[in-house]
Specification:
The strands form three sheets. The protein has a six-stranded mixed beta sheet. The protein has a six-stranded mixed beta sheet with strand order 6-7-8-9-13-12. The protein has a two-stranded antiparallel ribbon with strand order 10-11. The protein is built from eight helices and 14 strands. α1 packs across α2, α3 runs parallel beside α4 and α4 packs parallel to α6. Helices cover about 25% and strands about 25% of the residues. The structure holds fe (ii) ion.
Length: about 290
């Protein structure tokens, strides 16, 4: 506890002096600590692809990621986020990892499933593991919460999302790259060749591997969009496997053309600040 406080105090002071040097001072500190972490941006994107069946026209996927509950992000805010997501009327909800910052130290795990259960998506709720979901022996805690809340965990596996006319798209999910065992070959094994495929991978840099498979889109988180970006210096926090792709849309060309989207996430980790990297919800609308 003492060590932790000392470390946080140190980080805050270091960051504080950095802002002072840049002439931003107390106002900048207050903004990055209190204001920007609460400025949710809702981004709207269209996914247009010839392999999307026409009956999927207008199907809405909402992605949220990296809530890191217990570090700076509170249950109150999380409850509000669930309402915001439901207001967007998603058909499919995907969570791309890092629910709690430290699952084994989080004291309110029993309150999470009832909140997540309120998320409503007629075509299903799907999730994958992030590094923090495995960290601190969290794997079982996370699995229990997500299953109870009605999420299907995609762990090197795939599901077909099927409409009444039997047309379908495929959702694949892999384990985390840092602390798990991601395996795209296993995930894609039983997926029909010619269907539209979306891969969920916590780590965005897996796109370089994924683009050698016939996968159309990859949705990721993990980077927090840099979380704290300073002019002329860039991002202060960039975790491994989010070094190449940090935020937004990319086209990655391996053996196949892969569209990658990197969501900036909701919460914070390591530093209780966001600067030039607002929290984000992404709404994807499918178009045939
Ligand atoms: Fe992560």
């Amino acid at each position: 506890m003492f060590q932790n406080l000392t470390r946080r105090t140190f980080i805050k002071r270091t960051f504080g002096s950095l802002l002072t040097v840049l002439g931003m001072g107390a106002g900048g500190y207050y903004y990055a600590n209190r204001i920007e972490p609460s400025l949710l941006e809702i981004k709207q994107l269209e996914i247009i692809h010839e392999r999307i069946p026409s009956s999927f026209n207008g199907v809405k996927i909402v992605q949220f990621s990296d809530t890191h509950l217990g570090f700076q992000y509170t249950l109150d805010k999380f409850t509000g986020l669930v309402d915001t997501i439901n207001d967007l009327q998603p058909d499919i909800i995907v969570f791309t990892g890092d629910l709690m910052d430290e699952p084994n130290k989080y004291l309110e795990t029993n309150l999470l499933a009832p909140i997540l259960k309120k998320l409503h998506a007629p075509l299903g709720k799907y999730c994958i593991y992030g590094n923090h979901d495995h960290g601190g022996y969290g794997s079982e805690i996370y699995r229990e919460i997500m299953n109870t809340a009605g999420f299907t965990i995609l762990l090197n596996s795939a599901v077909s999302v099927t409409l009444a006319d039997n047309s379908f798209i495929s959702l694949l999910g892999i384990d985390d790259r840092m602390l798990g065992r991601p395996d795209i070959t296993t995930a894609i094994k039983n997926v029909p060749n010619n269907c539209f495929k979306i891969l969920l991978s916590h780590a965005p840099d897996m796109a370089d591997t994924a683009s050698s498979y016939p996968i159309d889109w990859q949705l990721s988180g993990h980077s927090h969009g840099g979380q704290v970006k300073l002019p002329f210096i860039g991002a202060l926090v960039i975790p491994p496997f989010a070094k190449i792709y940090q935020e937004g849309h990319y086209i990655v060309r391996g053996g196949h053309e892969l569209n990658l989207y990197v969501n900036r996430g909701i919460g914070t980790t390591r530093l209780p600040f966001r600067f030039m990297a607002k929290p984000e919800l992404t709404v994807f609308t499918l178009k045939s």
